[in-house]
Design brief:
about 170 residues, Arc Repressor Mutant, subunit A, 2 strands, elongated
Length: about 170
Amino acid sequence: MRLTRATDYAVRVMMRLALKPGGGRMTQEELAEQARVPVQFLGKVLQSLVRAGLASSHRGVQGGFELSRPGAEINLLQIVEATDGPIQLEARFTIPAGERLPESVAADEVWRQAATAMTDVLRNASLAELVQLASREYAPALDVPLEQTSASSRTYIAAPRPMPYPVELAAAQ
C-alpha cells in the first residue's frame, strides 16, 4: 500500500479545519497557506473531502470550508479512502493464479492480514487524536494554543498511541 501526496494534503487540511478556533470556516486560500498545500492541487483535495462527507463547503462572503462532523467522528481511514479509494495491498504477481506455487498461495493469507492490520490502524486513529497530539507537541509551530482549538473540548485518549506500522508517503503518480 502506498499513500499518495493527495492523502498527505488531505490529512493536513482536515487537521487545519479541526484546529480552527470555534470550528469556524476557512477559505481555500487560508487552507493552502496554513496547510502548505499548492492552491492548484487543493481544489481537488477539498472536492474529495466534501464528496466523502468529511468537510462541508459554503458559498458567499462568509463561505469557506469546515468539518462536517466532530474530529472524534472522523478517522484516518475515511480520509485515505476519500482521496485514494479503498485500501488495497499492492501485490503484483506475474504468474497467473492457477499456475502459482503453493508458497505464493500460502503467503496470500499474510498479505490479507497485513492489509487488515493497516486498515484497523487507520480506522482507530481519529482526527481528534491527531489534533490533540499536534496541539500538545507542536502548538508553537501550529500557532494555535490547545485550549483555543475547536477539537480541544472533545474526549481524547490519555496519551498518544504509538503507531505500530511504519507508513511511507509516496508522491502521486
